[in-house]
Amino acid sequence: MATRSWARENRLGRLGIAALVFPLIARCGGGGAPAPELRIAKLNPSAVSVPLAWSLFDRSTRTGFLPDGSHSRVRVTLDAPRRLSALKVFGPAPYSLTVQRADGTAVALEGLEDVDLSQLGPGWTTLATDETDEVTAVDLILTALGPRQAIPEIELWGWAPRRTLPADDYG
């Protein structure tokens, strides 16, 4: 009978400790939903101000955007506020590119001001930015440096929540 009593008290003791510890963990941030992990990802625009500019983001380097005139501005809206880390541009093009915050301040993103796209090599070139603030939209300002020519493709890269896969139902 002493063994049974000890086992019962031991179980009750463990339950008592658990009853004390779990609320403490919950108060210290151990409970609730975890913060989403961030990763660098290609960001897909949700809107562009110039309909033909969708060809910059269509994942095809065979099509391109031909800016109107010697100075063109394209507003690119993102699906949510994001911190940009880079732009990728495919191939050279006879334009100077400045990327500005589209919040009315006309402030260029760090490292993305007056970039001479005609000096890029063939294929993809990554233009990094040290921008630390999130943006919901950016303005791509293109200034012609020579005869008009299409810009094949641009990709926006930035910090986004890591996608989670559905739970495995196979146990």
Describe, in plain words, how this protein is organized in 3D.
The chain is of the alpha+beta class and 171 residues long. It is built from one helix and eight strands. Helices cover 17% and strands 36% of the residues. Strands 1, 2, 3, 4, 5, 6, 7 and 8 form an eight-stranded antiparallel β-sheet that branches. The two termini are 41 Å apart. The model is unreliable at 11-31 (pLDDT under 50).
Task: Provide a short characterization of the protein structure.
The protein is of the alpha+beta class and 171 residues long. The chain is built from 1 helix and 8 strands; from the N terminus they run αββββββββ.
Strand content: 35-45%
What is the string of helix and strand elements?
HEEEEEEEE
- Give me the secondary-structure category: alpha+beta
Q: Any low-confidence stretches, pLDDT <50, length ≥5?
A: 11-31
Q: What's the number of helices?
A: 1
- What assembly state would you assign to the polypeptide chains in this entry? single chain
- Major sheet summary line: 8 strands, antiparallel
